[in-house]
Amino acid sequence: MFRCKPEGIHTTFGRRKVSPRACVADSKKHLRAFLADVLEDLGFVTSECAKADELGEILATQLPDIIILGVSVDGIEAGKFLEILVRREFSGKVLAIGARESIIVKAVRQVGEEYGLAMLPPITTPFAAETLRERIAMLLPEDPVPSPAVHVAEALHAGWLELWYQPKIDARTLVRCGAEALVRMRHPTWGVVPPAYFIPEDDDPHLLRLSEFVIDRAMEDWHLLLEKHSPTDISINLPASFLMDRQAVRDLCRRMPAHPAFGGLLIEINSAEVVLNQKLLIDVAREVRLHNVAISIDDVGADWPALMGIETFPFAELKVDRQFVTGCANDRLKQTVCRSIIELAKSLGVRVVAEGIESRADFVAANEMGFDQVQGYLLGKPMGLKKFARSALIHPVLATK
Ligand code: G
Ligand code: MN
What SMART domains does the record tag this protein with (predicted)? Predict the structure, then answer.
């Protein structure tokens, strides 16, 4: 039997110092999407393959560490997949998924083992996402969380940064009305890591590069969402220092899409920073409005009275700090802060958003108090772009879970 030279360098899965990669091979689109979502949540980079003749290309370009192989009723396609894996000398793992007691699932495992492939014990349907998660998570490297923190320059240079999106929901219609972009690092060894591990100090020159990355990626993602779903109003988080850099602001305005469907970019600035730099930020907010950029005041809390004196208020939105939202249903003090900020927002004629809604009771309370928009784990966790686009198609309206 002839054998081709392998087209990629494969080392043992779990020891590679690059993001773990999985290819989901299944003819059914909805199954591929489900499996890819679970894997992405675990920090895998995923690719998908519908037919055996696409697999060769994926092996060569994506270098997957594991193939998740959906075994259909006739098993013919699964057989073809195995043949290609053998011909390409695939050295990663293969996990077959198929019906319980299916002869074909057993056959696929047996044939795979005879071919010398690293076949994992198959998963049988129906199975919970948790089952797959447990099975795959065991294969992930168990390195500790980064310490000391990774420098943002390294993360930027290596291309480890990405934006995750958390839905913002209209409190009255329950329709998804936008998304907050949150920066995440997909570290080769530690998986997906939140910004606390790499956000530079305020005086670090790399902070500007990180902000530029966020703006550029958000605008790229806006175009992608437009193609895959519909125009999505995106909010990003930036430090106030970015807006005080005149050149940076000019560049920002220049980066806004000229597309007619573009509804504008919202920039969330921490409330304490707004209070400290009020005069300057008011001028910037006025100026950028002409370029389809609006400023939101983020994490507003007990310091809300400091925002009262502003006469012409050029900001677009107040977001209440989740410290005063999570648990507000049963906490009079939190409700008092929320109500004061809502009242302030209404008197200024700007939108008011609750973030950190984790329970149904808080959602109801936020609605009754008069928030315009709500955001939080109950309504959607931050998720990778692909998952965000998919869930927008599947759940155009809030699923009342
Ligand atoms: O300060 P800012 O609003 O940008 O903070 C956003 C952070 O809050 C993100 O890291 C996000 O993961 C987190 N977050 C979003 N929704 C919730 C929630 O409902 N509960 C908690 N505890 N954190 C949340
Ligand atoms: Mn924010």
Answer: EAL
Q: Which residue's entry shows tokens 């020891």?
A: 15
CB 40 within 8 A of CB 387: yes
- Ligand 1 atom closest to Cα of residue 358: 19
Helix/strand/coil (H/E/C) assignment for every residue in 88-150: CCCCCEEEEEEECCCHHHHHHHHHHHHHCCEECCCEEECCCHHHHHHHHHCCCCCCCCCCCCC
Q: Does domain 152-391 have CATH number 2.60.120.1440?
A: no
Per-residue pLDDT tens digits for 329-350 = 999 999 999 999 999 999 999 9
Ligand nearest to the CA of 377: 1
Ligand 1, atom 13: nearest CA belongs to which residue?
356
Whose Cα sits closest to atom 1 in ligand 1?
299
Ligand 1, CB within 6 Å, residue ranges: 166, 182, 194, 237, 298-299, 322, 326, 355-358, 376-377, 382
What fold, for 21-139? Rossmann fold (3.40.50)
CA of 199 relative to ligand 2 center, distance in Å: 14
Domain boundaries, the chain: 21-139, 152-391
